[in-house]
Amino acid sequence: MDVRTRCRRLTYLAHRWLGVAGCLLMFLWFVSGVVMLYVGYPKLTPAERLASLPVLVPDAYRVLDPVAFPPGQSRTLTSLRGEPSYVVSTAAGPRAYATLTGDAQGPVTPAMALAAAHAFWPDANPRYDALIPEDRWTHSRGLDRHRPLHRVQMDGGRTGTLYISSASGEVVLDAPVVQQRWNYVGAWLHWLYIVRDRSVDPVWSWIVIILSGVCTVLAVSGVLVGVWRWRFRGRYKSGARTPYRESWMRWHHIAGLLFSAFVCTWIFSGLMSMNPAGIFSGDGPGPDRKAMAGLAHADHLSDPRPVLQALHEAGFLPVELEWGAMSGERYVLARDANADSRIVRLGDSGLTLERAWSPDTVQQAARALFPGAAVHAQVIEQYDAYYYARHAEAMNGGAPRGLPALRLDFDTPAQDRVYIDLRTGQVSLSLTHAQRVSRWLFYFLHSWDTPSLLRAGVGRDLAIILLSVGGLLLSATGIVLSARRLGWQRVKPRSGGL
User: Fold this and answer.
1) Where is the domain boundary, 162, 185, 208?
2) Nearest to residue 296, comparing CAs of 321, 322, 324?
3) Per residue in 303-324, pLDDT tens?
């Protein structure tokens, strides 16, 4: 047996037995993938969070002792349990302070968690459940600084589960019961969270990597076998181009050829989503956001009352104030319940309100993100292939992507690219060259999420669903053939199997 014949034989055997092992898993992946088009994994989006907050009124409270603003730490005036409160970012996690005294509010109790849940969903009845480190809906690393979490069940007008930070008392995640039920056949099933029990779980990661790798080999070997068995010139004695007369084998062969490109790229991109062996991890230090902020000192903006007064006089009704700095200049970012924003700065003639930062001002400050590196800057008014918005149900749908934005390409070893939202002056996205490659090998191949394709809307969804149906047909026929191979279904085929 020559080398070529041996390789073909091994390819046939690999496809046969990997199909027995992986066809059911691929079937479940296609089913759950279609569900995920419309129902995502539970997350609290900025729009949901802001919409639940009351308007901050200038004379509704008096700030006697504003919370200190440590360098490198953010301070936000928001509402906890329906009452204005400061939330300060510290090395140990977020901490809440009373607006009247500046005193720390202390540990978050179950009663405080119930009050926070009622303020968030006032048309539902809260019922305290437990203080938990993590559960099936809270694997996100973004929740680590809030753990453990108070879990509150909501009944009545709205039914679901709310999770409240034990560090600050903020609602950090909402999971309506309908979303939970769909997730059992959607994201929770798709990501194999049945075997994951913590936010950082190497066992789960390697299980998904190995299974995705096995199914990638299964799909590629299937393409090779399908092409080898198809008569592109001439026909078999039956008059067909496929050698298989038995219906299940014939449909498996034809479906594999029709949908092989989609199946291979989809399974491979799923493998790439796991960043196997850290191939897309950046080696550089990343952007230095503290250096861009600079050292800011206390000023008139430290008192929220004149800031709120100026915003109300301009017809802007803020629900949250966030103190920030750029090149040492203090500013306040105000947000309303519709997620619109205003920038409040202190000028020579008093407070000024702006909708966006000047690109030149931001570019000068942003040079500190990578000191000494040459930079090319461009203002973008439309989304590009890396900086774009997704709907709330998408995996990255909770990340705000505002326009206009400043795109900065730095001449660093990692070829860092940074996007700064000019409406906020904050870094919205930072990508190394390796991460930009990952964007194409994962997000694009898996979700077809370029701005032009996303604008297709329903047309894009229908195309993905149609191709997923093809993947389901291929997987379903593979399940039947595997059952026969294992002797679970005794039906004598009219032609040899793969």
Assistant:
1) 185
2) 324
3) 899 999 999 999 999 999 999 9
